[in-house]
Amino acid sequence: MRPEPREHIHPKAITAWRINAAFSLMFYLTMLIVYLFFVFTEDFPMWPAWLGILFVLMTALFDIAIIPELRWRKWRYTVAESEIDLMRGVFIIKRTLIPVNRIQHVDTRQGPILRYFGLSSVTISTAATVHEIPALDDETADTVRNHISKLARTAREDV
Predict the structure, then answer these.
(1) Which residue from 29, 86, 103, 114 has the fewest beta carbons nearer than 10 Å?
(2) Which of left, alpha, beta for 136 (phi over 0: left; psi -120 to 50: alpha)?
(3) pLDDT at 12 over 90
(4) Residues 154 and 113 in one domain
(5) Which residues span the domain enclosing 55?
(6) What are the residues facing 76 on neighbouring strands?
(7) Which helix (H) or strand (E) holds 85?
(8) Average pLDDT over residues 10-32
(9) What does the CA dihedral 146, 151, 156, 157 come to, rounded to 10 degrees?
(10) Among the three residues 71, 100, 123, which one is the final residue of a domain in this structure?
(11) What sign results for the dihedral spanned by CA atoms 55, 61, 64, 69?
């Protein structure tokens, strides 16, 4: 069996993922507040609100408190001469090998939360799909992007 990838993503990814989860949770919280408004003004039953409260609390516990840390521990990558090895997952671990000669282009991207933490994601496009190495610090992301691009150019020239 092949060894696990060596490189970890940045630890600030945990906080960024928690903030993303909190924003997603706001949607459910808004729905719960709207329902509670109808409970108190229109005589809707209270039991669905209790289920909603339980759902919001459980989602907050898992998506904000537990999952980001577990996700960060398993997210690893290695950029080798002939392939890129990605490993990720929480309960089910997924390994992806991307042959360098199949890479069409490489990008870095940054949303507002990643930008705040000085992080970027590297996206690797092949003909079939787009792969991502999330939450690298900006300098590492640029270095990884440039290195993968150089490897892909070299692989195309060798063909």
Answers:
(1) 29
(2) beta
(3) yes
(4) yes
(5) 8-71
(6) 8, 87
(7) strand 83-88
(8) 94
(9) 100
(10) 71
(11) negative
